[in-house]
Specification:
6 helices, mainly alpha
Length: about 220
């Protein structure tokens, strides 16, 4: 029975990493859709959010089954509860990616704003943060998870810089206001992606050490 339970825990880990990968791909594609004005890709991201939602529901059901049938304790219980928290954060990242793609669709009929290196940097930062968060969970690396708390502060700083840059566009030419506002929302969505990665990091520390680090990044 214990062997079957350990197999189920391994499967749960694989399932969490699978939904993680899909959310990461959604963010990557939303970046391409926005910066390259790719309508088809933007629609794929919006439509694909349903798949991430379906995976979350399936993982939740599996977690409830594991809790009901096995009554786990200690590190196994922490792993299951931590995985449940992580999946919630990953699903929200998928929502943010779909929101970015939807905003990309909303400004397709407008002339593009000048290229924003800050926005590209923020996209890259968010994707790198997701990669670190996935690796921290896969390896249960509490030290790497703690690094993500610092990364979250850097994401906030980049987010503010993008807002200031867009504000300068709006001051210079009122016709750019709508597009600049949409880009501000995109920047905020990417900052929220990094926030969710911090939440995931807290769950990794909880799984590994049994310590509740929730909200310590604040």
């Amino acid at each position: 029975m214990d062997t079957f339970f350990q197999h189920d825990l391994e499967k749960l880990k694989v399932d969490v990493l699978t939904i993680f990968h899909k959310a990461q791909e959604a963010v990557r594609q939303s970046r391409q859709a926005l910066l390259e004005r790719n309508e088809a890709l933007a629609r794929d991201v919006v439509d694909g959010d349903e798949e991430i939602d379906t995976l979350e529901i399936a993982i939740d059901a599996e977690i409830l089954r594991l809790l009901a049938l096995n009554q786990p304790v200690a590190k196994d219980l922490r792993f299951i509860v931590g995985s449940m928290r992580i999946v919630v954060s990953v699903e929200r990242i998928g929502d943010e990616a779909a929101g970015v793609a939807a905003r990309a669709l909303g400004i397709l009929d407008r002339q593009p704003l000048p290229r924003s290196l800050l926005m590209e940097e923020l996209f890259g930062f968010a994707l790198d943060t997701m990669h670190k968060a996935a690796r921290a969970f896969a390896d249960l690396d509490a030290d790497l998870a703690r690094e993500l708390c610092v990364d979250s502060e850097d994401a906030l700083e980049l987010n503010i810089k993008v807002f200031k840059e867009m504000n300068e566009y709006m001051i210079a030419e009122s016709r750019t206001v709508e597009r600049a506002v949409q880009m501000c929302f995109v920047a905020h969505a990417l900052k929220r992606v990094c926030d969710q990665c911090s939440n995931i990091a807290e769950s990794v520390i909880f799984i590994k050490e049994g310590a509740c680090d929730r909200h310590r990044c604040d």
